[in-house]
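Batch 3, record 17
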Amino acid sequence: MAAPLSKEGPQRIVSLNLCADQIIARLVPKERIASVTFLAAEPHSSTVSDLVKGVSTNQGLAEEVAGLDPDLVLAGRYTARGAVGFLERHGSSVVDLDVSESFAETRTQILDIAKAAGVEERGVALVDEMDRKLAENVDTVAARKPRAMMLGPNGFATSYGPLVDEMLSRAGLINIAAELGAEGRASIPLEAAILGKLDMLIVDSGERTGPALAQEVLAHPAVRALKHGVLVVELPSNLWTCAGPQLTDAVALLADARRRWERETLEQVKP
Amino acid sequence: MTRSNLALTGPLALAALSLAIVSAAIGYTPLDLGKAMSDVLSGADSLERIVFVELRLPRAILGLAVGFSLGITGAAMQGLLRNPLADPGVVGVSSGAALGAVIAFYSGLSQGLELALPLGGILGAALTAGAVFWMGGRGTSTAALILAGIALSSLAGAMSALALNLSPNPYAALEIIFWLMGSLNDRSLTHVYLALPLMVVGWVLMLRSAHALDALSLGEDTASSLGFNLSAVRLNLVAGAALSVGSAVAVTGAIGFVGLIVPHLLRPFVGHRPGRLLLVSGFGGAVLTLAADIGVRIVPIEPELKLGVVTALVGAPFLFSLLWRLKREA
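Prediction for the assembled complex:
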């Protein structure tokens, strides 16, 4: 991915948010980025670890980035607020990113960041590329869509948010989390998920960095037993935890899985 | 067993068993129990069977066994230390067990050897219980015992937090709440196999010391003159407490106050005989824990309340009233 080596616009960009990291790294060459979050450098949480190789990293603390004299600061609306306040008081220009709730909002967000970084054309190109990739996955939808659910760390989350809903529906899947989470639950109990008449189970296949109870649930005997009857799809968490261009790769991966499911169910019907 | 004791143990055991059945029957979603049972019996592979066998059953069994462990250990510790405030939670044994289990789990040790999880809990519980009994065994005052308990449990809590912070897994740091508050959510039969046998050994060790506890209530000298080997009795009880609480906490986290409340409520009914109190406190603890666990699934609070939150809401006022009574008697 060749980014234009523009000498115009901010030259010491600091990002305090993983989602912003993944957008800015695709927009400008790393020479113009002064600091990204430590997560951006870790391949299991970031899709741009190769693009930001060598860029210094921060943990969202004011002290780490103040000395870099940033001319543009990218931050999440709800994260690293202490550092953001400090930088604003000292005259840095700050772009706050809202939590994106749809592909449309993600598109706007990319364009906003591109504008702030002075690379509007590059932003438009990136968004067009997203649209093109998404269009590739719109194909004739079969008579029945597979019923799918995401199983992440800490169990079955309903509302990883509307963005994940949209991701699944763009891939041609029904997210049954919505119907199970009708009562506004933060997460779906394991037993509700098992009885939810699933066709496809999407599991987080992020790299493990040491044991945690949150991930122990993925190995629960009940989940293992459930996996026998349904199509299990592995989706790396770095593709979907952040709104950004990488979402299109997640959609492509899920759409592939849907086609595989359609073939398999058709074969069973034919005999 | 005397008739009066049987009259109390019977109904309590029955209540515990009924609550375990209720616990398995209720859940987050309606489950066709008839189909689940017939699939279990016929060995058919169905989703109903998975939910019942892999989720509901371990939850009910662990509620029963962990509650029993906490209740009986509370009674045993109160008897041995002859101190009404000796409870695995108050004196830091549960926190020590949590620390041991945290180290065994997050270091990856229990991934290689599953038994390391309960063994870590037992080791942590044994060290803290040993420290408490060493202090309490020398005729310490209630205040000194409580202070030692505060020191031990804050130290163990802080060390657990440290161990979780050192874990490279980003989810680990948030999991301190499970270890400090306890929960039966999403436990599996594996946890039952790991912890239950060790808990049962602990129960037996404590129950075998029942007569010695009765004798001890007359004073150490009297107990010795009655022919009890006091150091053997102490060792039995500390080992029993560590085995039961250590393996319980390792699979469900530290659920507080059960071991404090239950023996107190039941003591008048067994004629204040600490030996008799053991078995009834076990069943009483099971009743309380199962009731609390049924409660957290019925109240519409999401994410689910930790079990220790419920027992503390009941237990902390109880502890206050107990201290108040002790103060007035003093």
